[in-house]
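Hi everyone,

Forwarding the result from last night's run.
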Amino acid sequence: LSKTMVVDLYSNYIRNRILTLRSQLAETHDQLKAGPSVEEYRTLLERENALLDRLIVDYDLKARDFVGLCGDVSLEWIVADISCIFQSFVIVPLHTKMTDDDFIKVLNNCQVKCVICTTEGLEKRFHTLFPQCPTLKRVVLFDSIDDKEDECEWRDIVDTTAKENDLFSIIHTSGSTGVPKGAMITEGLWKTFISDRLSQYDPLVKIVFKPLCSMSERENVYHTFCSGGRSGICTEPHKIFEDVQLLQPTILSCTPRFWNVLYLEFQREYLAQLEKHNDSDRDHIRYKVLAQFRSMFGERLSYVTTGGAPSGDIVKRFLFDCLGVERVYEGYGCTEAGHIANNGGILRADVEIKLEDVPELGYYHTDKPYPRGELWVKTRTTIQGYYNNPYDTNKSLSDGWFCTGDIVELIDDRRINIIDRKKNFFKIAQGEYVAAERLENIYLSSLYVKQIFITCADIIKYSDQNAVMAVVVPNETVLIDWAKKMVESYINIKDLSENPRVNEMILLELKKVGEQQNLRPFEIPWAVYLEPEPFTVENRKITRTNKLARTVVDSFYRTIIDDIMAISHLRDGDFVKYGGDSLSALRLTALARSKYGMGNSIGHMRSSSSTLMKHDAILDPLIVVHDYKGECESNIFLTGCTGFLGAYLLYELLTQTVKPKIYCLIRWSKLDKIIEVLKHYDLWNSTIDINRIIPIVGDLAQPQLGLTDVTWTRLSFEINTIYHCGAMVNFVKDYEAHRAANVNGTLEIIKLASTSRIRINYISTMSILSLTNKTADEGEPLDDYHLNNAGGYMQSKWVAETLIKQAKQRSLSVTIFRPGMISWCSTSGKCNERDWLYRLFTGLITHGVAPDVDCLMDLSPVDYTSQVIVWIGQRTESIGETYHLCNTEKMIEFKTIWNAICAVMGKKPDYVEFNVWLDGILTQLEKNQQLNDLLLFQNGIPDDRNRKISSKNTKRVLQESDITLLDLNPTVFAHHLLS
């Protein structure tokens, strides 16, 4: 705003108004139309003249003197600013959160003669600085626009023809890595900033709530004035949402932090509404909550802007959904060069760029597919340098070019993609460079994360680091809500931050977010330190422009981060290797328990199955069930068709249905593999229509089942039923080993079914039930009492069924089948060579002796089980139901099976006491590796005698069928084993 433009402002827009909120705010929008809360430009002119009278007469200031301006957002700040512009003072805006040391450096560097304070109390701070600031003569408190004389001499506007290169203002950078640098803003630059953005919107209404010492907010105010608009001044930023609703701005400019807060509030409200309505009609609920948040901005909103730092993709998607893509504008620029790029990194027409290689980070302009490097720009609004700072000027500016300090890739001639700030990169062990700010913006999308700092331990001392670490300030409200359900007792947020269970939950939450955003493994924190105290300007961990003060934060947490790394070596046995001693070990062990929330084991912190399971068992709120896509063909999708039960399911689907094609997910493209499996189980015959079997190459453990987008979309149109039988089964490996195929695979099945409300027949397992003295009914909810002591397979199936049940609550058509132990085929004796039943009896055949135990086994023939699943799975009435497939009324004795096997072998059954039997196996194990499988039973032979399981649903529905469960015949099983 040049002096000439100030005159134009008053002559052309005298009838427009500037609205000031909060200090005298009326309760309703209608009351804003008149009254003491509205200041006209004419009245402002009188206020400014009165202040000028004091500055010139009482304080002996003249044109080109440097005047500091410090205060919270207020109308008084703007009045004081314009008053200084009238007299051609060089304004030095000062952030209220500056430290005294920074105040002294800035005041002395700029030789400030007078500081105007617009917030009461600040003047006392500056009075204490007089001895250290020799040029500072006056401190003025101007905290009320009514603080003026009724009659005062009119002051003419000084020097309305100021030269283009005359200093207008000194704007100081945030100082995130050191002392703030004073960017020199000339009269010409300021005039260009404003004139380039004059708006034609009518009405033009903006809200001012960010500190006015920042370039963007101050520019925002004068751009509005010179466009004849109105500015609502929010003097209490924590009430910004209320002010937005009251003022109904046409344009809203905010930093990513504002939009992050809004997004987290949306998530909380959305999840609360889902819980309130039992997850019914998620699309409608999400639309309703989006509409609720959209209404907060009023009816006049034209667009919103975000800038100052990159916004996370998740938050941007939320803004697009809430406001519409056309209303969201993301800008990129800086104080030193002005506006550089718009949405998507599209360069402004007047911006020139060049990339400089950064060999220490591995970025070169010759990189493929896109050139990469440090961005230098030349714009119409590039500053000439930093005031009284030749070192930083020469470092950042050269021949009209400004070094942004950002690493970018050049997508095409006029489009860039920002990777991160050069100063934010650090290197970990395997030579990978980490872009910290990019990761922080991603993790901030978590409900549980209020603030985060991504870092690593001392790379020289600990050269084996293969992933980042994190310092997290939790979202207190959200964490306490979680703790009420999950933590037995706690005192406050500090207590929670030191709780190992909370630490593990936050760590796994970061892992989940990282996986959702397809981050590389080293970009996902392996350890986290929870900080109960927020990063603030007061503790110097945040700059006055709300950016992370990395140098300060890194220094503050350096010892803690290195301690956590040392603890990991202590528990991995490498502590001495890295220079540790016994006293240090004792200290670190105590810290791990009492301060760092690391529990008893760093390994447990890195990978906790129990916490991970509960975390995985929450279905992503973003998964929405969509309606049918027109007339869908009645084809079937089957997983696990090359497994034991899966092969029999395929056979029954081909037998019980006539027309549907059966799409089979397998890892091979040829049909021969499926035919081979059917033949192996004696299921292949000439009546099977081979043309109905369609192999689909994929993998349960892969995202989107390993399918291409085309195949995925085709399936969603061509199937109406899924039989999900596929799973990894290993009774030795842990939960994480089963997680990809059994949990993530089921999640992908849910996503596929959600594309057009496809029915899921899910094959679970009876082993997920927590069997106590109480009978386990089919309709009872699952509990997790037994999970910590269960094997990895069972844990993964528990999580998978929990996800399926949540999918059912979101209106998917779901039927759950829980088979017990599936035994041999009742006609062929064919069995599953991978299950414990086969391993037990083949091992006994090798050993020749059985333990003398009295055990009953609940076994159901595979042909019966598959018949029931396919038949019930075709019935509409079974949707939403759960069916137990067991044989509790016809259980068979362990000795009956062994006796039948011995009879076929032509020998007398031989039994010995269990411990003698086990000792015999251990003695012979080195000589006979075939006995290895019997070690699975070193704690005893499975006994189902006391299991109480109800299968009323199954019995009831099967009364309408001709399916019969016959007595088990162990002889056919014996013949198969011995054949």
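The first helix runs from residue 3 to 12.

Cheers,
N.
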